[in-house]
Amino acid sequence: MAAEAPKMYYRMLGNTGLAVSVLSYGFWATFGVKDTLREQDGINMAKDCLRLARKAGVNCFDNAEVYGNPSGEAERIMGEALAQLRQEDAQLWRRSALVITTKLFWCAQGDEGTVNEKGLSRKHINEGIDASLKRLQLDYVDLVFCHRPDAHTPTETVVQAMTDLVRSGKATAWGTSEWSAQQITEAYFIAQRGGMIAPAFEQPQYNMMHRERFEKEYFPLYRQPYNIGTTIWSPLASGLLTGKYKDGIPEDSRLAQKGYEWLVKKLDAWKEDGSLDKVQKLADFAEKEFQCSTSQLALAWCLKNKNVTTVLLGATKTEQLEENLGALPVLLKMTDDHMDKIDEILGNKPEPWLNQQRPIDLI
Amino acid sequence: MAAEAPKMYYRMLGNTGLAVSVLSYGFWATFGVKDTLREQDGINMAKDCLRLARKAGVNCFDNAEVYGNPSGEAERIMGEALAQLRQEDAQLWRRSALVITTKLFWCAQGDEGTVNEKGLSRKHINEGIDASLKRLQLDYVDLVFCHRPDAHTPTETVVQAMTDLVRSGKATAWGTSEWSAQQITEAYFIAQRGGMIAPAFEQPQYNMMHRERFEKEYFPLYRQPYNIGTTIWSPLASGLLTGKYKDGIPEDSRLAQKGYEWLVKKLDAWKEDGSLDKVQKLADFAEKEFQCSTSQLALAWCLKNKNVTTVLLGATKTEQLEENLGALPVLLKMTDDHMDKIDEILGNKPEPWLNQQRPIDLI
Amino acid sequence: MAAEAPKMYYRMLGNTGLAVSVLSYGFWATFGVKDTLREQDGINMAKDCLRLARKAGVNCFDNAEVYGNPSGEAERIMGEALAQLRQEDAQLWRRSALVITTKLFWCAQGDEGTVNEKGLSRKHINEGIDASLKRLQLDYVDLVFCHRPDAHTPTETVVQAMTDLVRSGKATAWGTSEWSAQQITEAYFIAQRGGMIAPAFEQPQYNMMHRERFEKEYFPLYRQPYNIGTTIWSPLASGLLTGKYKDGIPEDSRLAQKGYEWLVKKLDAWKEDGSLDKVQKLADFAEKEFQCSTSQLALAWCLKNKNVTTVLLGATKTEQLEENLGALPVLLKMTDDHMDKIDEILGNKPEPWLNQQRPIDLI
Amino acid sequence: MAAEAPKMYYRMLGNTGLAVSVLSYGFWATFGVKDTLREQDGINMAKDCLRLARKAGVNCFDNAEVYGNPSGEAERIMGEALAQLRQEDAQLWRRSALVITTKLFWCAQGDEGTVNEKGLSRKHINEGIDASLKRLQLDYVDLVFCHRPDAHTPTETVVQAMTDLVRSGKATAWGTSEWSAQQITEAYFIAQRGGMIAPAFEQPQYNMMHRERFEKEYFPLYRQPYNIGTTIWSPLASGLLTGKYKDGIPEDSRLAQKGYEWLVKKLDAWKEDGSLDKVQKLADFAEKEFQCSTSQLALAWCLKNKNVTTVLLGATKTEQLEENLGALPVLLKMTDDHMDKIDEILGNKPEPWLNQQRPIDLI
To answer: Is A148 in contact with B357 (Cβ distance < 8 A)?
Structure first.
């Protein structure tokens, strides 16, 4: 289905004025695995994926200080890969054409990190961004995220530090990841009250199996004055929606790796709660309606929601990435009727955000 | 246990500067039942309950434009009862000693209500408060609630109208009921930005069986700068926590009445989800630890949470009310250890509000 | 086509929280013609139209201090008619179900008006509203308009006076009529800056022949933060779009009356600029596609634009009003394709608001 | 007439505190024509014009990232020319004596520009100004313009980015070009609300043939609190007002060049709509009253409007520039009576901004 690279489409990311390709490329759990790869092998794999994505029209590349093993490696490898790619084709990889992100909260020190090397103090934000930019070999990122809320740092302190980070030119906009709707609202108004810069986007988990927060809690944030854009992670529900776990854990999957015991545990839960049955039904539906894979259906389904700005693809192999890019033609064919049928299979559609306590026949 | 009227205690209601008795008396589903009672009989029952509550130190009396059958009757009866009580004992019932509330959203027109006779437009807020005050025979209420969020009226419009209602002297403070944390946060900041009056309290459902929103979603609102007070409804979970449904529906309970089919349905659900079993365990615990009823335990448990300002009692018979007031001595004996044991029985303690992504050994 | 009264639909009027019927009834040029009618005859005609409109679901009734001959008569007659109708059917005509408007700028003194009896000084706003309410026999109107911008009164002064008028309870929201987009924007921000109430709606001329301002200049105002609602006047272009002038001036039309020389002049212009030819084509299109009248097509066309909240109908005869109400079923059948064909006939579609200097393939 | 360099006059540019010569020199469509000129020839021509203008007292030099062919060349050539001129005469060309501008929106990548390389996102504003400053060989420009409104970037985002650009010292003030009055008003108030820097000037098209927007739509902006300055482009209406097209297209005019087909088309329109006749009358009037050229009359006419801060001259040859500078003595002789006569010839005087709905005999 994705034999030919599909035309790329864009969505405006919240209030940033930036157009982001609806499919983005994320460096989570990718390449920065020092112990299993020789240096340049990892870089080459990254370059292959980056090249494929860029040529398909992807303009957004997502990273975080904590990504990679050890932390920081994902940024280092992406930075080196981009530098090498710019040597290959300066025009395709010129800085102004790319939207590059990082996320700050957990440091690149991993378990060595002491009490002030994590979180959202101005100290860590300042130290974190400088270390990230160095690893990325960049003067600035386009988007910087607060990777989690920090229970120990008041929102006003965070907004001040993020504002100054943007004003200093080290990022062009800032956002949040896995903050509550209440926290984002608070940050928005604290920024506005103080003549500071409000968060413009959020990076939440969103997929067919995990809908409540994205569809319900965040709902008011997609509207004015917040107009929050979203870069969603885990669109394939940790791989569940690839269908690859239907018959147990494949040997080459992440689940077979050390450090992924949590995923194995999850798999057991999926079996028990009927998720695997749903995946089978989705696979049949995908095949019958679109002759596409379950992954492609799952990715297209995310994008059918206009509140999703871009879906992060986390593939580490070019074949997998190419397959994922094939979600775009599926999206173009998907109707509201298809969405209703998928909702029937999923059986987890959240209630509408507001109770209709005041019904009116609007036209 | 409550043979002697217990001393009353108070809590400050958010930022209002008002001290509210920790047990309040609510007029929901009470007395305004035109078809089953002769006029003065209803008023007399109301007076008996009001007199008992007041003498026990209750100073807060809760109502809403929509309460009663037909809507508006609960206010009318309370208004008339208060007027008659003031004739009996002017000192006890003087206006300045009482905290009287109403709630606006659904009108007193019931099903006849047209599109603009519900909701939170300034038109309905203005028309609603005037009609309520007339029924209550009052010049002002102390607390006025937005009884629900209104999907059709922007928050700024609501805050303006509520602010002007307070400024006009028709209420002394305003709050919300069943708004989301995000909506309350938005209202707070919109008020602050515009030099207007912020909502100071919320009336949510809260009881042993329904904890998530109160304990988790609202958590940040109990702190600065919001400092939201709460007047909680359904502390006995629609009667479940009285223990009276353990052996089916008693004939004289609300559930036997027309219009309460939803409660019957709920009862079935309680059976199935194990709630009735938990109630049995709570009953045993209450008896063993405090020689009190399940209701008293449940009410005291609510008040043990310092974020509860006052618990609304909805009794329609004096015996029932007297029994409920007996929760106060239980509260005085309740320890953190008791609370832990109750949590074990309930098994529904919400996760802490913020994931501890940045653990620090604080002392 | 309108043999049976059509079901009514509503639109939310800007930020007011008020639901307004998509067809409203306006008192411009109606009834207040003292010299040609005996008092009660005029009131009866008004009552017939009001009754018909209300029974068809119309909930919004538009007036202005300057309407009628002499000025003020339209309000006086509507006030008396409403009072009499409320005697007939208190439920149908209860105040809270109605959205009643007036507009202030030109006084009810007509040519006798001295320099401070017109305009938007606080003096005239205060004096004007009190006189209007007296004529209307009301305590408050729901909507009050600044009937024109006042070159002699700074916007801040106007916003203050209108805000206080709303806060005093004499109106529940305020708006503008024939202000420029720049003026409305200025008023919005001055209100927000000062913790005052912003204008929530505008009453502009809008019809098939007069589109530029509504579709282009006002375009940004329909969006956040302004969210301006509109109550449009002259939807039939001073009668041109009824088709009745195709063969000259009918004797019973307004154009035959003294004081309507401007309309006669307009008619000449319509002949010359090809408007009458377009009307003929529209009549054919209406007949062929919807078997409806040109008026019904023209009214439905207005409502097809979602930025129109309500269309003011100015009929003075019940037959004419009934005919106009028949626009609603036409609206339900109208497609985007129909709109394109009408645009072809009209040939006056404004350019899009913003030049697309930055084209992006959005999806 | 301009044998002797005329004394220069200045006007204050809005709220900037900067005095700008009433005639400025603009680099639109000039010099950056790589294919028709050898590098140093282009620079020399630029230097000749710059030298002439500067010696005549011009202190303002206008440019944009998009000017030149390819885009960016106009800035590069001006930058190099200024550097060389400073070698010639350090005193005359010292930085602090000059007011240098650029405009951001379309990038210097031309058709290669991808979705985020145009518009008014903070990313493009940051990247654009840095690229412009590099081409101009400067540390800062004095004035930076948003070259168009950006439909994809909220005004608040633009105001924040422009404010920070000024605060960073890369420009000393910012303005707009071809924004609507509504947009400028919005930007003004958003800036004020957030403690940010408001746009202080606008660069609109303005000439005898194109008056509506400048004289009517922008009218309120020339007054407090906006006090917008203007640097007007196309004062000679794409050459129409030079009179050179009266007898067809001269071979050496821009219209004979590829890429100017739009001008040829315009010329046809001018013939048809009577513009060429008006130009003839203006030529006669100029000769009779001032013994000056049509151009000089047209330029002086612009400056007679006190809301014009400076008129951009776009000449590419010194003779032409010298001729244009001769408008200044004409301006000194021009009376209101002359203006009335020119209005008679033009027949396009816009209605006054505000309808005089409230006429008062003011003195």
So the answer is: yes
